[in-house]
Write a structure and sequence with these properties.
single chain; about 170 residues; alpha+beta; D-amino Acid Aminotransferase, Chain A, domain 1; 2 domains; three-stranded antiparallel β-sheet; 3 helices; about 20% helix; about 35% strand; globular
Length: about 170
């Protein structure tokens, strides 16, 4: 204990709750939910870019600071050789094409993968704003599959980004 109760399908943390007492876990077999150990480790997001053959090109990592409805609203770009090695291992095992989005917990020693999405994820705007334009890289590879994509040397400067909503009046 504690455990987290989550919907099997769905998004945005809908109907999610933390259960702290064993007696509060429902005794019926409800296939709409699953239960897993609740960890309080720091959550991170990763954008990993692979070529058309599933070979690793680059990765960007974000320490999640503020979440809303399952989406990252504020994050700090971080660099870690340990994280980069993790991304390379994921790429080598899964061999995805293009951009994948991974959310994970890290306790300083172990990785706990929360999800892997074979698409641009909600944290990608931070990667892009940081100067890692994976969309342009994918388009360049699609035009010329032999093109080598290079990013500037890994920027190890931490930077915090926030997403927001702007409202405009149009006449």
């Amino acid at each position: 204990m504690p455990v987290i109760k989550k919907r099997v399908t769905g998004s945005g943390s809908r109907d999610q709750s933390v259960i702290k007492n064993l007696k509060d876990i429902p005794r019926i077999n409800n296939k709409k939910f699953f239960f897993q150990k609740y960890f309080t480790y720091q959550e991170y997001g990763a954008d990993i870019l692979n070529d058309l053959n599933g070979n690793y090109i680059h990765s960007t990592f974000k320490k999640k600071i503020l979440m809303r409805s399952g989406d990252t609203d504020r994050a700090e770009i971080v660099y870690s050789k340990t994280f980069e090695d993790f991304a390379k291992k994921i790429s080598k095992v899964l061999r995805p094409v293009g951009i994948i989005d991974i959310d994970f917990l890290f306790n300083g020693k172990n990785f706990f993968i929360l999800d892997i999405n074979p698409r641009v994820g909600g944290g990608y705007p931070f990667t892009h704003e940081y100067g890692h334009n994976y969309i342009d890289a994918i388009l360049s590879i699609a035009k010329n599959s032999k093109k080598k994509i290079k990013f500037n040397a890994t920027n190890k400067n931490r930077k915090i980004f926030s997403k927001g909503i702007s409202i405009y009046t149009h006449k």
